[in-house]
Design a protein that fits this description.
Blueprint: E1 2-5, H1 8-24, E2 28-33, H2 36-46, H3 52-57, E3 61-65, H4 66-70, E4 71-72, E5 75-76, H5 78-95, E6 99-104, H6 110-127, E7 132-139, H7 145-154, E8 157-162, E9 165-170, H8 171-178
Parallel strand pairs: 1-7, 1-8, 2-3, 2-6, 6-7
Antiparallel strand pairs: 4-5, 8-9
Helix pairs in contact: 1-2, 6-7
């Protein structure tokens, strides 16, 4: 899933609901981040729905700094991410429901954009039959029309706030509407 957000408050609101529901459903939850302040605000927002600290101490939700999951020797390493997800999925199949993962991609620079979009397409291809939900969050302010099309092609669904409501659309329909 692709989450398009206008500001950090929207992103935090969406992830708080997304992960809280996953925890209630006994899913393993993983969030990658680039800014400690986001984690503090996300945990605070989630606390309205679930006991975040308890779930974190039990290992049902983990917060991973983006460098620890996406990079090896300061180089983007998509195979490292695939292997991490594969390993966690195999452990999770023994314990119960699947994995709910997500991350804020606002840190992504132009130098890594095409490589990262290729990685996201690979996620869809490799894990489409697994019990894995991934929500990638991109700030609208950082996306050119070309980048928007590129990332929509890598995600089957787009989530965007329209007024007070979150709207989920199929990416193919959204691309058709743009064209």
């Amino acid at each position: 899933m692709l989450l398009l957000y206008k500001d950090r408050e929207e992103m935090i609101e969406a992830f708080a609901s997304y992960f809280s529901q996953g925890l209630k459903d006994q899913e393993m939850c993983m969030f990658s981040y680039d800014d400690e302040e986001i984690i503090k605000r996300l945990k605070s927002a989630m606390a309205k729905y679930v006991d975040v600290e308890s779930f974190e101490s039990e290992g049902q939700i983990v917060f991973m700094e983006k460098d620890s999951i996406y990079f090896e020797n300061n180089e983007f390493d998509q195979e490292k991410v695939y292997e991490t997800l594969k390993e966690r999925l195999s452990r999770r199949q023994i314990l119960g429901p699947g994995i709910r993962s997500g991350g804020d991609i606002s840190w992504l620079g132009d130098d890594l954009f095409s490589q990262f979009a290729e990685y996201e397409q690979g996620l869809t291809e490799r894990f489409s039959n697994d019990n894995l939900i991934i929500m990638c969050a991109y700030p609208l302010s950082q996306l050119s029309p070309e980048k928007m099309v590129f990332i929509m092609q890598a995600h089957p669904f787009v989530i965007e706030k329209n007024g007070e409501l979150w709207v989920v659309k199929e990416s193919e329909q959204e691309l058709a509407d743009l064209g």
